Amino acid sequence: MWFGSWRRKLPSGDADNENHETSGLNDLNEPLLSHHISDGKHAEGQRSKEISDEERRRADLQWEMLFSNLIMQWTHSIANIVHGSGTSIVHLFRVHFNIQNGQNQKQPVAPVLSPLQKERLKKLQKRLQVPFDGSRLEHQDALWQLWRLAYPDRELPSLKSEHWKDMGWQGTDPSTDFRGGGFITLENLIFFAKTYPESFQSLLHKKDGDRADWEYPFAVAGINISFMLVQMLNLRSGKPSCLAGIRFLQLLGEEETAFDNLFCVAFQMMDAQWLMKRASYLDFNDVLKSTRKQLKRELELDGVSRVKDLPAFNMLRSREGN
User: Fold this and answer.
1) Secondary structure of the chain in the HEC alphabet?
2) Percent of the chain with pLDDT over 90
3) pLDDT tens digit string along 271-298?
4) What pTM, to 2 d.p., does this model score?
5) What digits encode the pLDDT tens for the residues 159-186?
6) Taking a C-beta distance cutoff of 8 angstroms, is the pair 159, 136 a contact?
7) Is 222:255 a contact under the CB 8 Å cutoff?
8) CA torsion through residues 145, 147, 149, 152, sign
9) Is the torsion defined by CA of 117, 120, 123, 124 positive or negative?
């Protein structure tokens, strides 16, 4: 997976798709964008990459402050109900300090999975093994389902059409973009569109914030986010052993759709980082790394037992309004 088709925001607000030369990534451990784009071959009118180090630090600081404020709010709530020595409060501050300074001292302990967790993990890992196959009718139907959810008032395109670029696929044939992402990435996008339609439409059409002249392509960004989550949570191993993966298993025990919900949170978080950093398409890898770091921090917080407990979940706008 890599980025080859980019959407430029024109003064009129319409989008024009431009193709840029990229070289493929054979190593599926890095399906992202950065050094594979040839210098000097970007379209005329591309906005220069002028984000200074100071601006980046300022953006990172804003995330730190938001994160700290959330912790303080939680701490205040807990302080109202905890009596005695206050050991729990001291522990919460200590965990927050360690996480903020990249020194989380918690040692991952391989959990003993319940029968329900085992069943759901096995089902999720089975989903990860399914490649996207454009010749399978159910996969074609899923692709068209995504189109209907994205553009309910537009006519269905053929499986190979220029119209797919409007959704942020690289070219005329979406099946060529999945590669190591697999069918689960399409399922993630469909889940997002069905469960959080307002947020989905907002991200698809880049409605929020001051957007860059050269934006990330929506669909291919989703594939990269799915891939990032699988790596971060160590889901291709027999049983996740990293702290984020262990915490995810706890979420999975509470809700079978934990991975799909986490995808939606990660997508919304990535877009917020994108806007805060005033990013353009060359910055996508940078933004995705920041998103991964922030998501890990939130997963490692005490008291997170469901995806809805993550601070970033509040950025999503669900169909039910909760």
Assistant:
1) CCCCEEEEECCCCCEEEEECCECCCCCCCCCCCCCCECCCCCCCCCCCCCCCHHHHHHHHHHHHHHHHHHHHHHHHHHHCCCCCCCHHHHHHHHHHHHHHCCCCCCCCCCCCCCHHHHHHHHHHHHHHCCCCCCCCHHHHHHHHHHHHHHCCCCCCCCCCCHHHHHHCCCCCCCHHHHHHHCHHHHHHHHHHHHHCHHHHHHHHCCCCCCCCCEECCHHHHHHHHHHHHHHHCCCCCCCCCCHHHHHHHHHHHHCCCHHHHHHHHHHHHHHHHHHHCCCCHHHHHHHHHHHHHHHHHHHCCCCCCCHHHCHHHHHCCCCCCC
2) 56
3) 999 999 999 888 999 999 999 999 999 9
4) 0.71
5) 999 999 999 998 999 999 997 789 999 9
6) no
7) no
8) negative
9) negative
End-to-end CA distance of the chain: 34
| Top mean-pLDDT range of 25-34, 39-48, 258-267 | 258-267
pLDDT of amino acid 20: 38
pLDDT at position 145: 98
- Contacts of residue 48, defined as CB under 8 A and 6 or more positions apart, other chains included, come to none
Helix axes 258-276, 197-204, angle to 10 degrees: 40
Give the type of residue at 165: K
Q: Which residue has the tokens 């959704």?
A: 167
Residues 6+ positions from 185 with CB-CB distance below 8 Å: 132, 178, 222, 223, 226, 227
pLDDT digits (tens, 9 = 90+) for 220-261: 999 999 999 999 999 998 888 899 999 999 999 999 999 999
237: left (phi over 0), alpha (psi -120 to 50) or beta: beta
10-25: burial string, b at 16+ Cβ within 10 Å, e else: eeeeebebeebebeeb
